[in-house]
Design goal:
Strand content: 5-15%
Bound molecules: guanosine-5'-triphosphate, magnesium ion
Largest sheet: 7 strands, mixed
CATH topology of the largest domain: Spore Coat Polysaccharide Biosynthesis Protein SpsA, Chain A
Oligomer: single chain
Radius of gyration: 20 Å
Structural class: alpha/beta
Shape: globular
Order of helices and strands: EHEHEHEHEHEHHEHHH
CATH class of the largest domain: Alpha Beta
Number of strands: 7
Helix content: 40-55%
Strand order of the largest sheet: 3-2-1-4-6-5-7
Amino acid sequence: MSRQPTADRLTIILPTYMEKANIAEMLGTLTSLYPGVRIIVADDNSTDGTAEDVEAIALANPCVSIIRRNPGDRGLTASVMEGIENASTEFFVVMDADFQHPPAAVKKILDKLGENDLVVGVRYSKMPLKSIRRHASGGAQTLASIYLMSCRQPHTHDNMSGFFGGRTKLFQEIIQQSGHKFERPGFKVLFDFLKFMPRNARIDEIRFDFGERKGGESKLNSRIILSVLRQCGILGRGLATILEVFCTSHAGRVAGLFILALLAVLLFL
Ligand SMILES: Nc1nc2c(ncn2[C@@H]2O[C@H](COP(=O)(O)OP(=O)(O)OP(=O)(O)O)[C@@H](O)[C@H]2O)c(=O)[nH]1
Ligand SMILES: [Mg+2]
């Protein structure tokens, strides 16, 4: 077997929710760039016709398949896990379906997989993100690195990246042994994998220009952002629960303001 991995040894996993605006173009781009590549779309019951578009394409191209996920288990992390569990090639790459991860950069990841267990796509510039999201993303990256270092686990320059590739067998073993500890509804599956990665795993990175979403809308919301905290042990989970109560309900916001006002009064008394 040659050392340089080729597209026929690769499965690309695309988690989707309401991506009708992008999915057909994404599948067309990937299949023409990488003839012979397998593609698994893990769709979370989109109601905009995403799954139907994939099914029509899969009829003409047996390398493309779809997982129509259990509606009771919605989650980007859960979808990626299921995609990896269903992959049968030696390597896989996970990427978004909205073109923020450039299809041409899959090759850069694939080229490095021959000598590595995990290759992470590191976002070069996060300029397409709004300023507040750039800061939140920087904070989450620091938090995750500190957490991983404290557990003596490997960390990377972009622990939150949704663009990464790995050796399928190793990742299937991690899911089998530790998948029950993953934050299934979360967005940051790479962080979960890093928490359970063998300490001697061979890890490399590629850099890529993080693009703008091509069509459709983002599904990120404050609850999902808080789920990053949930991935940081008991303390993180406790803090996330408290913040969720204060930030995501009207009564919680009122109670939060009341507590802040009380603290201010006590400080100035
Ligand atoms: N299966 C599944 N896929 C999802 C879910 N939420 C988002 N996705 C997909 O995951 C990828 C990333 O989602 P986005 O909404 O683009 O999130 P993001 O890239 O972090 O946010 P933006 O920068 O605002 O686009 C896309 O391919 C989505 O279709 C989900 O609940 N289930
Ligand atoms: Mg996106």
